[in-house]
Fold this protein.
Amino acid sequence: MPGIPVILGVGGGIAAYKSAELARALMEQGCAVQTVMTAAARQFIQPLTFAALTGHKVITDLFATGSSDEVLSSSVEHIRVAQDSRLLVVAPATADLLARFAQGLANDFLTTLYLAFQGPVLLCPAMNTAMWQHPATVRNIEILRERGHHIMEPDEGPLACGTVGPGRLPDPQRIAAIAARLLCQRHDLDGETLLITAGPTREPMDPVRFISNRSSGKMGYALAEAALARGAHVILISGPVNLTAPEGVELVPVQTAVEMYDAVMSRLDETTIVIKAAAVADYYVANVPKQKVKKTPMRLSFELDPTPDILAEIGRRKKDQLLIGFAAETENLVPEARRKLASKNCDMVVGNLVSREGVGFESEENEVVLVQRNGEIRNLDKAPKRVIADQVLDQALILRLALHSAS
């Protein structure tokens, strides 16, 4: 059966029945689906269901029972399947599977295949809310994210156990759409140099305290990862974050707004696209005390000066570069994005409401509006930041082509 070879790993949870719908949705995206089921998954849904839907045999055991030739073939089948496939999707990814993946255990076909697989991995957790929020699961998710895996946050709602909260498997159509984007290996940024800023800045108040904000840097790092995957040379100027830069990115770490300003301006001329995703502090303490300020019963005041306006300065200096700014707002999103677009001489502003729960600062997902120089406004629905990153880059290339055609 033709199609892009994709592995669908099915874990043992009540959400396994949705994996059958996911198999169909993946096929609609042009995938040839090879299903791998754990022993626990077979307690919830039969392998025959997936075999009938996909037209491929379902792998359920690490070792075959039968002739010596069949046993020999099955002993290396996890290697063959891993090598022949472009994407590994695990849905539902149970707490048990996440733990085994994180620790590198290989005691069945799916976990053994996982260790042999070299392509992108999309994990879709589904479990009881308490299990999802348990520190062990939280740490396992962190480990898997650090490996570069794509993890969809579970949906919130009523669960099979009777509780209500996060833990539901995301909609299969959404999973399939993200899988399709991960499979889209484009090189439409070959020859481009992208300068991306990410994260917060820290402005010292004394030797131990600083002014900062809630930016995690995840959006900027997702943009860097997406641009790198599409063939660009990426200069990532990053404030202090708890993230690992994608391998192949040129990382320039900074702390303060002045340091970020200097780093950006020193590299501006070599870039073709600039994306200012960093949340730069607006004010800083000009005269930082040399010693720690002691606590007293008295009110304490600091004199704050404005930090350099990096985006505005790029807007003044830019030549043929495409300039994309970010507007993190708590109200009046589109008017504020329009104001920034005009006042900073941007070609596009990506606006998002950081006051909303589950998107923006410190979140894995985002929901943004693209306000463009040509007057067009596009809303991007809530999605993982890596997906939003590709959508932003898509629109940036369309916008630049239109601007160049008009000039």
About this structure: The first helix runs from residue 16 to 28. The chain has two domains: 4-183, 193-406.
